């Protein structure tokens, strides 16, 4: 882990992402369609980052968008798709089938064990979950070991230390203390095992406010904080806002078509906006208000799926 001393860590999004080198191992926080670091993902693409090695649990538009933009060399995830709602991730699937990216499918528990090995200063940890699967074939770095106590054959997975973790939180202070709502997915472990952590937050608040809600990730693990309201859009960041199903469906149509439609999405929502404020203006306050009102009534959240 990279220890970060107490200081004011608030920076612009562009500055936070500028130091990310090509070929970096980038851990993506959140999971599926919840609390994905989308503001940071859009900035990675705007800055033309290339040959990234993505690591995560189970993800959707963040990975698909980075793959569509040609920013990814290797993808180490347990799943990339939009769940039963909208289906598999089109750009990722095309790239995987064409061999345009290295597919290193893993499983959440295996990645968790690798991160814990880094936290504990160990070269590896043993797991059972990948035995009997083809996952080991995708990971020649895995080895089999025999337990000296039981004789059981286990899989030794090496410690994993991402160069950078990109996280999004509903709130944080200027020193890097972050509050997350459960489920935390792998965010805590990414924060502790990565060389550097960049966090976007919907609200920059006082340390007392973060402490009152509960510090999930402490400041000494975070290198930079960016205030980015709706920074997870079009995914959710509960309890503030639900995911924008209408926008996700529009992205899926563009990604499935590929070609000019997908290029048009990138031009409109990524390259065509110079800041996250411009992105929010493009999405529109009416839609952002609508997804923020999901908890007002049963009818409110059901309406998001109609």
Structure summary:
With 306 residues, the protein is α/β, with parallel strands linked by helices. The protein contains 14 helices and 13 strands.
Give an overview in words:
The chain has helices at residues 13-18, 38-46, 61-68, 83-86, 90-98, 108-119, 135-138, 187-193, 207-213, 245-257, 259-271, 276-283, 285-292, 298-303; strands at residues 25-28, 52-55, 58-59, 72-76, 79-80, 102-103, 124-127, 143-146, 153-158, 164-172, 178-179, 197-204, 224-227. The protein is of the alpha/beta class and 306 residues long. Strands 1, 2, 4, 6, 10, 11, 12 and 13 form an eight-stranded mixed beta sheet that branches. Helix 3 crosses helix 5 and helix 6 packs parallel to helix 8 (187-193).
The residue ranges in which pLDDT falls below 50 over 5 or more consecutive positions are none
Q: How do the SSEs run, as a string of H and E?
A: HEHEEHEEHHEHEHEEEEHEHEHHHHH
Q: Overall mean pLDDT score?
A: 95
**CATH architecture designation:** 3-Layer(aba) Sandwich
How many distinct folded domains? Answer: 1
Largest sheet: 8 strands, mixed
How many beta-strand elements?
13
Task: Figure out the total of helices.
Answer: 14
- What is the highest CATH level, the class? Alpha Beta
General form: globular
Question: What tags apply to this protein structure?
Answer:
single chain, 306 residues, alpha/beta, 3-stranded antiparallel beta sheet, 14 helices, 37% helix
């Amino acid at each position: 882990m990279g220890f970060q001393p107490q200081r004011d860590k608030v920076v612009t999004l562009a500055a936070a992402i500028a130091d990310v080198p090509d070929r970096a191992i980038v851990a993506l926080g959140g999971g599926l369609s919840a609390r994905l670091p989308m503001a940071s993902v859009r900035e990675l693409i705007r800055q033309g980052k290339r040959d990234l090695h993505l690591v995560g649990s189970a993800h959707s538009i963040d990975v698909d968008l980075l793959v569509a933009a040609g920013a990814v060399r290797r993808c180490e995830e347990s799943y990339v798709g939009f769940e039963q709602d909208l289906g598999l991730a089109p750009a990722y699937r095309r790239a995987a089938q064409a061999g345009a990216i290295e597919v290193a499918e893993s499983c959440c528990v295996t990645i968790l064990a690798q991160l814990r090995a880094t936290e504990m200063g160990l070269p590896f940890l043993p797991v059972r979950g990948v035995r009997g699967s083809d996952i080991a074939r995708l990971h020649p770095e895995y080895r089999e070991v025999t337990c000296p106590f039981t004789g059981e054959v286990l899989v030794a997975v090496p410690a994993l230390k991402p160069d950078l973790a990109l996280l999004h939180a509903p709130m944080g202070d200027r020193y890097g203390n972050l509050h997350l709502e459960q489920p935390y997915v792998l965010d805590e472990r990414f924060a502790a095992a990565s060389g550097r952590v960049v966090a976007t937050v919907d609200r920059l608040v006082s340390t007392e406010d973060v402490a009152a809600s509960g510090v999930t990730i402490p400041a000494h693990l975070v290198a930079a904080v960016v205030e980015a309201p709706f920074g997870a859009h079009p995914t959710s960041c509960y309890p503030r806002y639900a995911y924008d199903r209408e926008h996700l469906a529009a992205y899926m149509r563009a990604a499935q078509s590929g070609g000019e439609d997908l290029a048009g999405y990138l031009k409109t929502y990524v390259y065509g906006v110079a800041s996250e404020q411009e992105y929010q203006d493009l999405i529109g306050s009416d839609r952002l208000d609508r997804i923020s009102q999901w908890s007002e009534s049963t009818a409110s959240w059901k309406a998001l799926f109609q």
